[in-house]
Amino acid sequence: MRLGLFVPCFVDSFYPSVGIATVRILEHLGFHPEYPEDQTCCGQPHFNAGKRDEARDLAQRFCDVFRPYDVIVCPSGSCTAVVRCHYPELVDSPVCARVFELCEFLVDRAGVTDLGATLEGRAALHIGCHALREIRVGRATSTLLASVKGLSVVETSSDSWCCGFGGTFSVKFPEVSAAMGRRKLEPILDANVDYLISTDSSCLMHLGGLLSRRGETRPKLLHVAEVLASGLEDA
């Protein structure tokens, strides 16, 4: 099986450790991920803004670049959902159905539920809206985190709430976006957790900015790939 690695813009530009962790996980399991350097933005900002022509051009480019691969893995529920659920409105390509978010690929395609990861502490889990509601990776994510030794995932009343980022939504409606984020964080802070784990770096960036403005030093923000890759070197 030829596996392509689809790295979202947020990971590429701001959180490269997430991409590195994803590669470590896949290689640990015996896969040989390939990163096609011609890949660009998937076009989600253009699609969400109603700029269908620009989004269509990027969607076609994505499908052309990733056509040689049997499966494409992405450490983002948001970008995965756009390609798999909304690209078919723009382009006619079998590539769309080959794209999987990291956790769902590990559990549903590779049959992996325990990577031998270790992380001591208590964590809240935020599964991004696209991941939770469109491609529904909640079960796979929770299954993988349940196997992390030393980690206790704590339920909060805001687990299913949107963080308020929403890409261009946060730019067009910053006050509403920030208010949603603060509301999301209150139960998490009340739970006194050590970590806030998410499937999407974009959500973590938004919530991290709000925490920073409050002067909070906890919880530490981690992408699920970084958690699952912990301890692999020792293994």
How helical, in percent, are the residues? 40-55%
- The end-to-end span amounts to 24 Å
Largest sheet: 4 strands, parallel
* Name of the CATH class of the largest domain: Alpha Beta
Strand order of the largest sheet: 5-4-6-7
The number of helical runs is 12
CATH names the topology of the largest domain as Rossmann fold
The total strand number stands at 7
- Low-pLDDT segments, ≥5 res: none
Order of helices and strands: EHHHHEHEHEHHEHHEHEH
Global shape: globular
Mean pLDDT rating: 96
Cα gyration radius (Å):
17 Å
Number of domains: 2
The assigned CATH architecture of the largest domain is: 3-Layer(aba) Sandwich
Query: By helix and strand content, what is the structural category?
Result: alpha/beta
Tell me what portion of residues adopts beta-strand conformation: 5-15%
Concise overview:
The chain has 235 residues and is of the alpha/beta class. The chain is built from twelve helices and seven strands.
SSE order and pairing:
Elements (H helix, E strand, L loop, with lengths): L2 E3 L3 H5 L2 H13 L15 H5 L3 H15 L4 E4 L2 H10 L12 E3 H8 L8 E9 L2 H6 L3 H9 L2 E5 L14 H5 L1 H17 L4 E4 L2 H14 L5 E4 H6 L6
Helix pairs in contact: 6-8, 10-11
Commentary on this structure:
This protein is an alpha/beta fold and 235 residues long. The chain folds into two domains: 3-109, Rossmann fold (3-Layer(aba) Sandwich), CATH 3.40.50; 118-229, 3-Layer(aba) Sandwich (Rossmann fold). It is built from twelve helices and seven strands. The strands form two sheets. It has a four-stranded parallel sheet, with helices on both faces. It has a three-stranded parallel sheet with strand order 1-2-3. Helix 10 packs across helix 11 (201-214).
